[in-house]
Design brief:
By secondary structure, the protein is α/β, with parallel strands linked by helices. Helix content is 34%, strand content 27%.
Length: 211
């Protein structure tokens, strides 16, 4: 699929809006996960077209606690829409790299950065060796422990990062494969309007530090 086709799809399936918990950040958002997922005709949901609970909580936490990222180089891992990376820049991060395996997510992240007047370096799947060598101070990862294979690969990648002194923060609404013995909870946020995505109107979501 060409870059132009990807741009056209992101444009046709979304419209500018905001996530309920993070009104400071504008995003290209779809309004119906089932219809959008059907139109993408892919196995995985269109994570890039929605503001998921873990990402919203993590973005809110970063905006409310800018000391976590101010002046630092940040990786928005499995970036989806790029919400967390944009929030980090709004909070004063020196630079943000956004990594995702999904080409549409990379397009959406770049578009959302432009929508907010910030610049994000968008790369491929760093966990698969795509993109530059990792050179960051902080990793932010929202909603990454939702299935076992992904969670295992994610934890291996994050373990390597913490091993060289990189701070890692994750946003998670209680996914089954969250490594609960490895995380320190920092704050919990009630993310509203999550019926379509989570099956409940309000989803309590916790920001953790990986130990």
């Amino acid at each position: 699929m060409t870059q132009g086709e990807l741009d056209d799809q992101v444009t046709s399936w979304t419209a500018p809006g905001t996530a309920p918990l993070v009104p400071e950040v504008r995003l290209l958002l779809a309004d119906d996960i089932h219809r959008t997922w059907s139109e993408t005709d892919e196995e995985a949901p269109p994570f890039w077209a929605f503001a998921w609970a873990g990402g919203q909580a993590l973005a809110r936490h970063v905006l409310d606690h800018p000391g976590l990222v101010v002046g630092k180089r940040v990786l928005d891992l499995a970036s989806g829409s790029g919400l967390v990376g944009v929030a980090a820049l709004r909070a004063g991060a020196a630079a943000v790299v956004a990594s995702d395996h999904d080409a549409r997510a990379r397009v959406a992240t770049a578009r959302n950065a432009t929508l907010n007047g910030v610049s994000v370096e968008v790369v491929g799947d760093l966990m698969a060796g795509e993109g530059p060598e990792l050179d960051v101070d902080v990793i932010l990862a929202g909603d990454v422990f939702y299935e076992q294979p992904m969670a295992r690969l994610m934890l291996e990648f994050l373990d390597e990062a913490t091993g060289v002194g990189i701070e890692v923060y994750v946003g998670d609404p209680g996914r089954e494969y969250l490594p609960r013995r490895r995380v320190e909870p920092l704050a919990t946020y009630d993310v509203p309007d999550t019926t379509d995505l989570e099956g409940r109107a309000v989803t309590p979501t916790t920001v953790h530090r990986l130990r």
